[in-house]
Amino acid sequence: MLLCVLGGHAQQPSNFYKGLVRSNGQPVPDASVKIDKKTIRADENGAFTFSGVSGSSVDVSVSALGFQHLRQALTLGKAGEVYTFSMQGRETAIDEVSVLGFTPVKEVNRQAYNVTAIDATKLYNTTMNIANALDRVAGVRVRESGGVGSNFNLSLNGFSGNHVRYFIDGIPMDNMGSSFQINNIPINLAERVEVYKGVVPIWLGSDALGGAINIVTSMKPRNFVDASYSYGSFNTHRTVVNLGTTSKSGFTFLLNAYQNFSDNDYKVTLSVADINTGAYSENIKLRRFHDQYHNEAVVAQVGVVNKPYADRLLVGFTAGKNYKEIQADARMKVAYGGIHRRGTTLMPTLKYQKMNLIDGLDVTVNANYNFGTEKNIDTLDRRFGWFGESKPNPGGERSKQLYVYKNNEGIATLAANYKVTEKQSIALSSTATTFKREGENELNPQANNYEVTKRTFKNMMGLGYSYDVKDVWSATLFGKYIFQSNKDGDRPTMNMNRFGYGLATTYFLDPEFQLKASYELTNRMATAYELFGDVENQDANPDLKPERSHNINLGAYYGWKINEDHRFRIGGNLIYRYAFDFIFTRLNNNQSKLIADNREGVSTRGADMEFNYSYKNFLTLGGSLTYQYLQNKQEIEPGYTGVSPLFNAQMPNIPYLFGNTDLGLVFRDFGKKGNVLNVNYNLLYVHRFWLYWPTMGGTSADDKKREVPGQLAHDLRIGYSLNNGRYNIGAEIRNIADAQLYDNFGLQKPGRSFAVNLRYYFQQVK
Amino acid sequence: MKNTKWASLALAASVSVSAYSCKSDSPDLPTNKGNYVLAVTPIASTGVADYLVTVDNLESGSTTILGNGVEQDGTYRYYVTHNNKFFSMLYGQGNPGAVTTYSVQEGKLKKLSDFQSETVQAFAPVNEDILMLKIPRSNTNPLANYYKVNTNSLLISGEGTLDVQKVAGNGESAFFTWIKQVGSKVYAPYMSIQACCNAAFETAYPDSAWVAVYSYPDMKLEKVIKDNRMSFVGRYFTDGLGVDEKGDVYAFSSSIGTKNKVITSTKPSAILKIASGSTEFDKNYYFNVEAVSAGKNITDWIYVGQGKFVVLMTTKEEKGAYESGKHIGIVDVYNKTFKDVTGMPDLDLIKDITTNNYSAKDGSAYIGVAMKDATSFVYRINASTATATQGLRVEGGSITAVTRVD
């Protein structure tokens, strides 16, 4: 296809011409200009160049945000001539922003990578956290193990756990501690959330092979205050305050503080055992009684912006703490009444960013180190029942301990991007991470002589080359080299090297029809938590091997409209992956904790589709559906010589069919001019799946094969913003039908819940 | 424009079609029914579920767990039969877990109930109960818990604690290897363990055998029987006692006391006797098994009647504190003789041999043999001829228990 386009140019000698897009004499930025069939984007001053044959007639059509569409025929004169196109303003301009304009979110969606961006600003009046927002993206499924503060496992096109890595402004979140995770960061902290499926760009410097989530916080120079508070079911309180100021001299100060508190005392339906007789009573609906969670964090950053030596130079400090009661084991089979954990995050940070350090060279440097301390507390010699009753039980509830430890994690990243020519650029990144855990059980000093230090060090270097013909096609070729060294006490140090590479390309058939394709040979190293456990509900597996996989993604997106009112966009992706030493999470042999493990081979074939429709600026309707088929490709099991009966079987306990739909209504000037009422309805569907190997055992009702049932959740949100968005009131009902929802390994999630949210937002652009 | 739109719709359609075209066909289900209950664990690694299948014949035919069998929650499960019931117990570390009880009706497993029990390290039928012990392995906790499960009501009918440091009386802790009803009493052989120092199961006392004797149902410690002619009785999670038709008790030792990661027991693998009605080791009975078996040591056994045991063994070279044996022999404790069993598959082809096996005490035992080629068989071991005969074939997994429920 590419050859055809290039071939077309060679037919006749052509000249270059210049065009200017103007409205009332002022430049119109970023207009989209179509000359015959070729699309050109005008720059921010409205200027563009195009080629053509002198004396020929061309059809010119110009569209720009906020202006009426312009179309005219033009006969080309002599080479180098300048043509001006005058556009008429349109009154409804502002309303079109979210539909037509290339806001940053849409720009991200046009990258060569398989990427989706969520415009977080549209979700500010909700009580969502980042994880909730991600749950609505095609191919993404967030599995939380309960309410506020619970563990989560995000799956992205069949990859989950640490196949997916998380970033804030391009900085890996691996070491930010338990106070700072995507399921407890409020959506208001983000400007947008980028979801990279499959191939992860070099500048993120990651070894994630399933994809990456990058939370982008706002960088605009402005003074702003954004404060919100919400209260909801289960005694849930959340507060977020964002403050920022940037002086004319470039001094900037950013403060983000937030708090989450919840009793998480939602009702669950369980088989409840009498702790004295062991007798089970079936289908008992009861409240969780030991599941309080709260975290508080302050992120302060101070520095300068827009200086000759730095666009942004910020030093900061993150201080956070969290408290979490542990109600149950990994399967909710056992109730605990005293086990809890506490943790702190104390983390200095450094960010440096400079575009055009020398002409065409952009440099970003980040570093941080977490000095925080964690404590696991299991000191009650009691056995609890689900009604909160207890009896003596020597040796603690699970394993008696007062384990005090430090997970000291540090990270340093350097990313450089050099624009060689208008179309070519080279990216280089290096990310070094360290992990060190030292701890002791204060209740058993004798055992502390045998506590060992656990360390990992990892360095990832990436080099990429991009070729980009704006709005026609772009391609990126890259290589990644990873070194990791693990040390677990006295065991021999394990050093490993891996090299991977890939190619990602995107092609625009026309501005609204995009094709994407990528291939990558990816390597994913085991994380410190997979190797050494999390000292809570995840066991250590120090022998875990790095994973290597072939990943192929094909995607297509197309948008069209029926007159100006009805707009459609559909997209689809096909995924094929073959992973060697596939890392996945399973229950440990006792079914009480989780553990990471390797499968020699796992293939994934998957497809996802998304659909969006909008009517004027009143209604939006969207949906996504994902299917993924993960197959066990381990032919011979350890210790055996024959072909495993599970060779080619579908992998257990992984949701394989799920989707969501979203309906939004916007009532403008509702009640008063400038006030807006938003109504949003979301439906989430997850098809039933088997907990253990699908091909094993009988599936008749008598056989009672364990499954996670199909789930359907309806959520409704209402938001009302006053005074052009300065004051906002939100209310939401989640799980309206009070359906039984499950997650991680059949854990029950809350039933119907309510929340209200109040937000104040004030911004002053200098 | 129109073309591209239809192209994209076609692409989207092909995406969704290919998504649904992956479908697995279900295998033909065998119609095995019977009173033998086999536990089978899938070949694929750990952390998944066991399956129970019923068969009417262990000597021929085949069964499978592919599309057949009753799923159990997890693989670290232990199975015991008593009072015509089958108990499926979860080993859940420090956690309690559900015990599922089945009966066999018309050759099929019928779930009777679930009850919650603690994770235990020793359990055995005693009177109408199943007695279970949860044994500490850290010297910060001296108390073992016992639970009595009534096999009629299927509920815990009583519980209490046993002081394992007091039982050991040597500064270490007693870790019961198993329990067994002998007459009206409960015999609990144990290993002495240091219960600390990152090597809980090591000991400074590798050359003595002990049996704690408890009354029942009140579980009062009556005495501790000790003998220095052999090392401790049984091994971790292994029944080292056998009771014959006369009520005489025989006890084997693997001789695997350990310190600093090496075996420090100096006595040979041997068998001692506690005569019926006495609570002392018989001073006149000693059977040095290593001396008659070319140096092999017993790792597990099952009593098949008339003074004969089918024993699993390791050679001197294979011997280890947690090595379970694949060599099969016949021990006659009356005549103090030993014979190697012939007719078993080549040792190199065997993955595992089950330790939870069935005997009608008629001179033979049925044991499960998981082969490395991913199939599994039940073998009948005839004690008088010392021969093994291949029987039932099991597809899809490795046999972990062979039991019978009437």
TrEMBL record, chain A:
Residues 110-212 form the TonB-dependent receptor plug domain. It comes from the Bacteria. It is found in: Cell outer membrane. It is a multi-pass membrane protein. PROSITE patterns: TONB_DEPENDENT_REC_3 (PS52016). Its main location: membrane. This is Outer membrane receptor proteins, mostly Fe transport. Belongs to the TonB-dependent receptor family. One of its GO terms (biological process) is siderophore transmembrane transport. One of its GO terms (cellular component) is cell outer membrane. Keywords: Cell outer membrane, Membrane, Receptor, Signal, TonB box, Transmembrane, Transmembrane beta strand, Transport. GO terms for molecular function: siderophore uptake transmembrane transporter activity. The keyword Thylakoid does not apply. Residues 306-736 form the TonB-dependent receptor-like beta-barrel domain. InterPro entries: Beta-barrel_TonB (IPR000531), Beta-barrel_TonB_sf (IPR036942), CarboxyPept-like_regulatory (IPR008969), Plug_dom (IPR012910), Plug_dom_sf (IPR037066), TonB-dep_rcpt-like (IPR039426).
From TrEMBL, chain B:
PROSITE patterns: PROKAR_LIPOPROTEIN (PS51257). InterPro entries: DUF4374. It holds the Pfam family DUF4374. This is Uncharacterized protein. It comes from Sphingobacterium psychroaquaticum.
